[in-house]
Amino acid sequence: MGLTWFPNGIKTPLMVGGASTPEIPYTSGSYFFVSSTYPLGSDSNAGTDPQAPLATIDAAIGKCTASHGDVIVVLPYHAENVIVASGITCDIAGVQIIGLGTGSQRPTITFTTANTATIVISAADVTWKNFLFIGNFLSIAKAFAPSAAGTDFTLDTCEFRDASDVLCFLSVVTTTATTSANGLTIKNCYRQSIAATTPGPFLSVLGTIDRVQITDNLFVHGIDGANLPVVMSQAALVVTNLLMARNRVYCVHANTSSGGLLIVSTATTGSGVICDNYVRSQDPAGAIMVSAAAIQYGMFNNLHTGETTLLSATILPAAGSDT
């Protein structure tokens, strides 16, 4: 039985392959399909028929209409390389890019050829969901680069792997300087970092940013990054209305006395809530979650363990009395 074309759209979200696979969301916009395997795509196709898909995601983005609700459906086993800066440019607003499949069936995007290889987000309301990203070049600076215009960018249910301890991502998302992409959301993602040289955080903030949500992710760092954050670095830049919640962090950092496990910052202002995060490191005595005490983040029920004797975690920072 072949794939089915939906010329009149989809009236309700369509599950493909069972409850554990992503939905093709309902939209009043257009659907474009991408495949590098079966059926073999070509960028000369219209891309609206899954049996005659496009070959690349960038070509599919070029077919979309801004703020029309268009959806790019990337078929299972699709493979694509990003080899230069702006190798894929998301410059059409309101586009969802949905990968189909589970495990090794998921579409795979490999960063190679240059450490500047990036996916640029330069339009608002772009979503990437259910992709596997592999860092396969020396010290790739970042996978995603949302510009100030790339507001409300969402990464959902994506996995990031390093090919080796030198062929790797240093960070996953790095914003632009001066003003960052407000409304950034990172949820349900998994990063396994084995970078041997300065393993960086998932998110590097290089400009003031508002409405950041980092929720329900798993971050694993297999190399000791003394005093380096696992989740977010913001230097002295202002982050407002942050929600960092329900993340799980496993790292082998042995010295975190001056660099927060979750956030490293020297900012003196900011706002938001950091709650219900579970963190494991190898620093039981001097560990801290956020390096800048002056930032007025609300800290609630964040747990840390640095013990090797199978003891349960303790609240970090310690519970206060508000007296």
Fold and architecture overview:
The relative contact order is 0.08. The protein is mostly beta strands and 323 residues long. A 10-stranded parallel beta sheet has the order 3-4-7-10-13-17-21-25-28-30, with helices on one face. A 10-stranded mixed beta sheet has the order 5-8-11-14-18-22-26-29-31-32, with no helix packed on it. A 4-stranded parallel beta sheet has the order 15-19-23-27, with no helix packed on it. The chain contains 1 helix and 32 strands. The termini are far apart. 2% of the residues lie in helices and 33% in strands. The chain has one domain: Single-stranded right-handed beta-helix, Pectin lyase-like (Pectate Lyase C-like, 3 Solenoid), CATH 2.160.20.10.
Give the SSE layout.
Elements: E1 14-15, E2 23-24, E3 31-34, H1 57-63, E4 71-74, E5 79-82, E6 88-90, E7 96-99, E8 108-111, E9 119-121, E10 127-129, E11 132-135, E12 144-146, E13 154-156, E14 159-162, E15 173-174, E16 178-179, E17 185-187, E18 190-193, E19 203-204, E20 207-210, E21 213-215, E22 218-221, E23 232-235, E24 239-240, E25 242-245, E26 248-251, E27 263-265, E28 271-275, E29 278-280, E30 296-300, E31 303-305, E32 314-315
Parallel strand pairs: 3-4, 4-7, 5-8, 6-9, 7-10, 8-11, 9-12, 10-13, 11-14, 13-17, 14-18, 15-19, 16-20, 17-21, 18-22, 19-23, 20-24, 21-25, 22-26, 23-27, 25-28, 26-29, 28-30, 29-31
Antiparallel strand pairs: 1-2, 31-32
